[in-house]
Amino acid sequence: MSEGRKGSGRKGGQPEAGPGEPGRGGSAAQTGWIVSANVLAVLALVLAVVALVLYITEDDEEGSLTGAAGQPTATAQPTVVQPTPTPPIVVENVSVDDDPSWGPEDAPVTIVEFSEFLCPYCQRFAEQTLPLIQDAYEGKVRYVYRDFIVHGEPSLKISEAAECADDQGKFWEYHDNLWENYQAVGQQTGDIAGLVASLKTYAADLGLDTATFNDCLDSDKYASEVQKDSQDAASYGVTGTPGFFINGQLVMGAQPFDNFKAVIDAALQGGESGSALPTVPSAGG
Fold first, then answer.
1. Contact in structure between 150 and 283 (CB atoms under 8 Å)
2. Across the chain, what does the average pLDDT equal?
3. What is the C-alpha separation between 77 and 56, in angstroms, rounded?
4. DSSP letter string over 103-137?
5. For the chain, which end, N or C, has fewer CB atoms within 10 Å of the first or last residue's CB respectively?
């Protein structure tokens, strides 16, 4: 061997790094690698925890819909409270008085209407529903018209005029004529003199004895009769117009024909309808 070789290690007698051993720069690299490994380990742990939480949450949600062995469990249903049907109001011995009517006096069903000629809902009933009742129940229903004054003096005077027409056997013709002229009559409520003049004209148009009719209307012959009808209506519990009693069962408002049919059919069977009818608009109530 050559004696000129001074050593095989580092300067100052330090041995050189062997294979796989870090040198000076390797120590810093090793430290950085350890830090990176620790960070990655922490991140992995965090991700594992998050995954576990998500798994547990999902499992709980599924568990709320399934029972043992994965069988679905019943979902709680809200309790539905059914409304208690309101019993119908029945008034015994509703008087027909001596007021205008059609149909047999011994008909199994009697309908008493409390109405007035300035009520728009009464007009609707008279023109749309009453003819259907008359056609469907011919011979089975007696219908009686009575007054219930809601709109004061003008309404009172119109009802008096209809009673004066009844004196000459023309109530229903006058009744229909008033409904046909409903808008014109309503526009004269602020002018009683003009309204009375129109009421006399309607009587003349129907061929009534105008002298007799005019004297009847000018003398207020039927004012007390009309007011008595109104008092009876209030005593029976009628709060507006139109109000009806079908064999004593109160029906308020311009109900559609099907509602009247239900009550009339029940009355023909000897009973009352199962519950009060729904509330519909009426004048004054």
1. yes
2. 81
3. 26
4. S-TT-SEEEEEEE-TT-HHHHHIIIIIHHHHHHHT
5. N
Side chain identity, residue 33: W
Bigger pLDDT: 3 vs 96: 96
Sign of the CA dihedral running 123, 128, 129, 134? positive
What DSSP assignment string belongs to 173-233? HHHHHHHHTHHHHHTTTT-HHHHHHHHHHHHHHTT--HHHHHHHHHTTTTHHHHHHHHHHH
| Nearest CA among 225, 73, 55, 204 for reference residue 145 | 225
CA triple 168-137-271, angle to 5 deg: 115
Domain segments of the chain: what residues?
101-268
pTM of the model: 0.68
Predicted local confidence at residue 280, as pLDDT? 56
Question: Which CATH number describes the domain made up of 101-268?
Answer: 3.40.30.10
CA atoms within 13 A on the CB side of 259: 18
